[in-house]
């Protein structure tokens, strides 16, 4: 059997490709486990500056593998393992030190939207069809959607998308703020690489701390958020990258950051 996730690294950019094209890359426990291993390794790899997540074939991710779920009932411990592994993976993406770009090259349903929302940036195919069908199917959202979706579109629109469970388009997703960029499907990965390349030039320490404080800011008081900013600024100003940024500015050249 082919690996459920394919990994490739091009310079400072690592790409994870969901690789179940016959099921439109529907999630499974082995797929989650493969992502967990790959993300754990990536978090510790200082040579990787940006991550892209995309799908193999014509879809990004069709959500849960309903056919597999319908073939047999899972025991309680199997259900918990599947749920908890998936939740760990989504949170790992949200807190990964590197920026993560979702290249949504096709349909994103349920867990597919949840995966994209866990990323820092989303490049969306115009032709993509999207849906959060959990309420229609009698199941429930995951991946932190209760906060990642509301964070992007507000309560009213989040409630509409979750409770009605109706289809919407890639264009709709872009218009409501779910995506940073809209692209024809055959150019989504190209556009994601362009974005990743621009990100990869920035200071890794600054980006890591920016992700951390952005995640923290909605859960703490304004005073605590400002304290976190001050601590992050102090860490940046103590780094070699800060000195490199100053030298590059004074010399009129692009900085070369080492994450030190």
Please give the share of residues in helix.
40-55%
CATH architecture of the largest domain: Alpha-Beta Complex
The count of β-strands is 10
Taking Cα atoms only, what radius of gyration do you get, to the nearest Å? 19 Å
Strand coverage percent: 15-25%
What spatial order of strands do you see in the largest sheet? Answer: 1-2-3-5-7-10
**Sheet with most strands:** 6 strands, mixed
How would you spell out the order of helices and strands? EEHEEHHEEHEEHHHEHEHHHH
Query: What is the count of helical runs?
Result: 12
Number of domains: 2
Going by helix content, strand content and strand pairing, the class is alpha/beta
Output the CATH topology of the largest domain: 2-enoyl-CoA Hydratase, Chain A, domain 1
| Approximate shape | globular
Low-confidence stretches: none
CATH class of the largest domain, please?
Alpha Beta
Distance between termini? 41 Å
At the fourth CATH level, what is the homologous superfamily of the largest domain? Answer: 2-enoyl-CoA Hydratase, Chain A, domain 1
What average pLDDT do the residues reach? Answer: 95
Can you offer a commentary on this structure?
By secondary structure, the protein is an alpha/beta fold. It folds into two domains: 5-200, 2-enoyl-CoA Hydratase, Chain A, domain 1, CATH 3.90.226.10; 204-251, Lyase 2-enoyl-coa Hydratase, Chain  A, domain 2. Helices cover 51% and strands 16% of the residues. The chain contains twelve helices and ten strands. It has helices at 29-43, 66-71, 76-95, 111-118, 134-137, 145-153, 155-164, 170-175, 188-200, 204-217, 222-237, 240-251; strands at 5-10, 13-18, 50-55, 59-61, 100-104, 107-109, 121-125, 129-131, 168-169, 181-183. The strands form two sheets. Strands 1-2-3-5-7-10 form a six-stranded mixed sheet, with helices on both faces. A hairpin with a 2-residue loop joins strand 1 (5-10) and strand 2 (13-18). The chain is globular and about 60 Å long. The N and C termini lie far apart (41 Å). The model has no long low-confidence stretch (mean pLDDT 95).
